[in-house]
Amino acid sequence: MTLPIRDIAFQLRQGQLIALADETGWSIAADPVNEKAIGQLIALMPFMATGLQPTVLIEKTDQLGLYVAKLPDVAYDLVDFAEDPLIVVYDQGKNVSSVVWQSAAKLAAGSAETPVNEQLAVRRSLSTDVQRLIGSFGRGLLTIPFESLSLPGSVESLITIRFGTLPAMPKRPRILRLKVNGEVSFIRK
Questions:
Q1: What is the pLDDT of residues 103-120, one digit of tens each?
Q2: What is the residue range of 97's domain?
């Protein structure tokens, strides 16, 4: 039985994790401000592919300002005109649980880059169904991306709600870093 979008949005607000299928394959999603849900989500990070990090999934470009404190003008164009999946790592993220920052800091201890607690990865979903879910939810979703057509076995047993449609072949998103001054560098092309 498939739940209606409004019921799934309600479950997210209650701290439920959901399995989300879109153009990049499976990911697990949670409310980005629900500390209990984020704690459960962060526990799944060891199952993520190397080089990935928790990512806020947004419906449309207008939502960037909700999650990034200082956006260079080029940010809107990069996200809006991306025809393929694109993850942009921004400096000075905001409006996500502090649990995310603490976990990211543990993962990247000793890095010479900008302190991790100021970085936030954001991706605009290209899936119409997922965009409708995010719109119904009213804010972005924090996700742990797996970029595969199947969920890891130990993760699959934790999830009761699934939403979205898997593609025949998931597209690996490009990942770029966008600094406050507009400087762009590719992490994964």
A1: 656 655 544 444 455 799
A2: 5-188
